[in-house]
Amino acid sequence: MQSVLLAAAAVLATLFFLTRVGAAWIARRFPPVGHFATVRGTRLHYVHVPGPADGNLPVVVFIHGASSNLRDQMVPFLPVFRGKAELLFMDRPGLGWSERGPRGTNHTPTEQAQTIAALLEHLEIDRAVIVAIPLAARLPPRLRWRNRRKPRGLCFLPPLRTLGRVLPLPGTTRSRRCRCSASCLPSFSHCPAA
């Protein structure tokens, strides 16, 4: 019995060590690429890309899904939308480089939406179109900020595994279904006529 407990303890210690080494390797390979702001006691990581000087479009705010980070949406969308509108990519609380926050602050979708709304207020964003993938789809409808304003628009994208059929990702070819992005964000049509 004692040898079984020692073996289990050794396995747990090994897994703990490998997890720490893996996390350190990932942190070195993918350092933070943006800025940090502390809102509602939570330190959030975000990338804020200015829009054109003459732009009058709302800010496009990208919210990634579970077990993900801001790079998942920044890599395919930044090259497409840069220069057309102001863009905001963020790591959700507890994911990517954002901290989880104080206990009881970001555990439910409503609480996470309140923290994201606080970041939008901190950045003085009044008008926004929220773009989310299904695993984050419970957050945008709950977003309220500054005098209970609601987002100017919501756009829900398919899971990333099918996104290559909607937008041309690096290493893929353009698809006829690419026009889906134009229906979500009509000012950003970028697909050639099919």
Instruction: Give the terminus-to-terminus CA distance.
Output: 68 Å
> Which CATH architecture of the largest domain is right?
3-Layer(aba) Sandwich
Number of helices: 5
Going by helix content, strand content and strand pairing, the class is: alpha/beta
Task: Give the radius of gyration.
Answer: 19 Å
Q: Specify the overall morphology.
A: elongated
Instruction: Write down how many β-strands occur, each being a DSSP E stretch of 2 or more residues.
Output: 6
Main sheet: which strands, in order across?
A: 1-2-4-3-5-6
Q: Outline the low-pLDDT stretches.
A: 172-194
| CATH domain topology of the largest domain | Rossmann fold
**What is the percentage of strand-forming residues?**
15-25%
CATH superfamily caption of the largest domain: Alpha/Beta hydrolase fold, catalytic domain
* Largest sheet, strands/sense/barrel: 6 strands, mixed
Helix content: 25-40%
Summarize the SSE layout with pairings.
Elements: H1 2-29, E1 35-39, E2 42-49, E3 59-63, H2 71-81, E4 87-90, H3 109-122, E5 128-132, E6 153-156, H4 160-163, H5 180-184
Parallel strand pairs: 3-4, 3-5, 5-6
Antiparallel strand pairs: 1-2, 2-4
